[in-house]
Amino acid sequence: MSLQKQRILPAIRKMKDLEKLLKSSYTYIVLLDSHIGQLKNIVDLGRANGKKLLLHADLIEGLKNDEYAAEFLCQSIRPAGIISTRGTVITKTKQNGLIAIQRLFLLDSSALEKSYTLLERTQPDYIEVLPGIIPHIIKEVKERSGIPIFAGGLIRSVGDVEQALEAGATAVTTSNTELWQHYQGRS
């Protein structure tokens, strides 16, 4: 599953940001905060403009984050993919043939070890590692899991992006519009 060499995955919280990105060279866009009543229109708008939305299922207002919600998103909304911290959501997303992105909060060694167990069970297409500013952990997770990594969270500078990519991240998720602009059009 290819992201067409897109190194930055713009993560949006406001429709104003989506409107800007519709005119950009980015294909894949992460939708963070949303409301269930807006999802279909947002995904359809993106699709009509050649964009592929990755929905963060955990942050959709009005929708419980479980396998039934994942089934609804996959069957009715049809985004390019779904991001979640929940293994059941990732499993259901994979069953429906969408891009499944397992989000991991790596707070300490215990969380890291539990994450490896979860990854063995869910086998997502991608892993989003948070915070994304820990290059040696990005490298370790990629080597140990064999699954492509997205780095996200606390990415504030071009240096942060470059460190994550050099550590082996496939892409960096960020809501920082200055980083979107800096990397737009670059492979």
TrEMBL record:
The cross-references to Gene3D superfamilies, in alphabetical order and at most eight, read: Aldolase class I
The free-text function statement in the UniProt record for this protein reads: Regulates expression of the glpD operon. In the presence of glycerol 3-phosphate (G3P) causes antitermination of transcription of glpD at the inverted repeat of the leader region to enhance its transcription. Binds and stabilizes glpD leader mRNA.
According to UniProt, the name of this protein is Glycerol uptake operon antiterminator regulatory protein
- Note the Pfam families from the entry: G3P_antiterm
Q: Which InterPro entries match?
A: Aldolase_TIM, GlpP
Keyword annotations from UniProtKB, A to Z: Glycerol metabolism, RNA-binding, Transcription, Transcription regulation
